[in-house]
Amino acid sequence: FEGMTIVELAKHAGEPITTLQDIVVNVGEKVTSEFDPLSIDVAELVAMEIGLNVRRIHSNEGTDIVPRAPVITVMGHVDHGKTSLLDALRQTSVAAKEAGGITQHLGAFVVGMSSGASITFLDTPGHAAFSAMRARGAAVTDIVVLVVAADDGVMPQTLEAMSHAKEANVPIVVAINKCDKPAADPERVKTQLGAEGLELEDLGGNVQVVEVSAVKKTGLDDLETALLIQAEMMDLKARIDGPAQAYVVEARLDKGRGPLATAIVKAGTLVCGQHVVVGSQWGRIRAIRDGMGKLTEQARPAMPVEIEGLKGLPMAGDDIVVVDSEERARMLSSGRKRKFDKDRLIKINEERIETLEPSE
Ligand code: GTP
Ligand code: MG
């Protein structure tokens, strides 16, 4: 809706012009003429107020579009070896340090591949309780690595991950892990996946399958190649200049530093000092840290960073939008909060009506 006038927006939404004028005044903007183009922030607010679901699409016109690293999310059933596989790929040991060896959050980091290419990986938890987190992981990613233990085979969260990937329209590369185990049966896993509708390469489809062992570090080169082939086919590119469009993959509260969000920039450049709206939260970016915890001035596409300076805790999956001023940030954030609250009320009411209806 950027650049639309009130008249045009009113026509689009089928609302009276005066209603929209009132909203614009309510959000603290001066209306000079209903024929003046609205800024993108005000347009978003007005659209939300009249109940439209809006999503910002940035134009790439006149800017440099350059290749970017793929963002790849590792998914699969609990304990099938997702974190171990990532550890093996980056040769560290996160799995051993985790409480009970169970991943409880979304981690993000860049792995430099032996071929010189780099890949941004997101780890996700396999535990049944973290379904929403996996759905968000699938939504911000280019490719899903579906990890299936060769001894255990296809399990409930394997299927769940498959459906998240399908819903988000993200291609899958299968990694059959734990192939070192005596009970490993990769052929059985392939048959199971095929039966679930995954079109594996072995069976004439286009889903690549690689047999690996995170512990014995076998098949890792093949996995790397498969991922780079998949990424190459997708021809991933991003605009570098201009305002950042980014997503939160993880957020936590630090006692000293306040709310911290791990974010991945999808396009543009996020710069220290900018005012941002993150989901329904807002803030001014006080510090940006790269994957190694080092302070940096800016974040470019596919680079996972930690940002500091938000006033509240955002949620994984929230979008990050750069705005001109603190005033705009506050305004947009409170507009979004109102919309979220309204949507939540509607949902609660719908559920209530459903439970009140006689079940025959
Ligand atoms: P969640 O994050 O809780 O879903 O688990 P995960 O999928 O990240 O599994 P994790 O990497 O924590 O590994 C679970 C267990 O499987 C650990 O005890 C690992 O040592 C073991 N494991 C992982 N990969 C392999 C493998 O290739 N071979 C063998 N034998 N064991 C493995
Ligand atoms: Mg894990």
Please give a structural write-up.
With about 350 residues, the protein is α+β, with helices and mostly antiparallel strands. It has helices at about 5-15, 15-25, 40-50, 80-90, 130-140, 155-165, 185-195, 220-235, 325-355, and strands spanning about 65, 70-75, 105-110, 120-125, 145-150, 170-175, 210, 235-240, 245-255, 260-265, 270, 275-280, 280-290, 295, 300, 305-310, 320-325. It has a six-stranded mixed sheet, with helices on both faces. Strands 9-10-16-13-12-17 form a six-stranded antiparallel barrel. Strands 1-8 form a two-stranded antiparallel sheet. A hairpin with a 5-residue loop joins β13 (about 280-290) and β14. α3 (about 40-50) runs parallel beside α9 (about 325-355) and α5 runs parallel beside α6 (about 155-165). The chain is globular, with a radius of gyration of 23 Å. The model has no long low-confidence stretch (mean pLDDT about 85). The structure holds guanosine-5'-triphosphate (GTP) and magnesium ion (MG). Magnesium ion binds near residues 103 and 123. This is Translation initiation factor IF-2, mitochondrial. Belongs to the TRAFAC class translation factor GTPase superfamily. Classic translation factor GTPase family. IF-2 subfamily. It is found in: Mitochondrion.
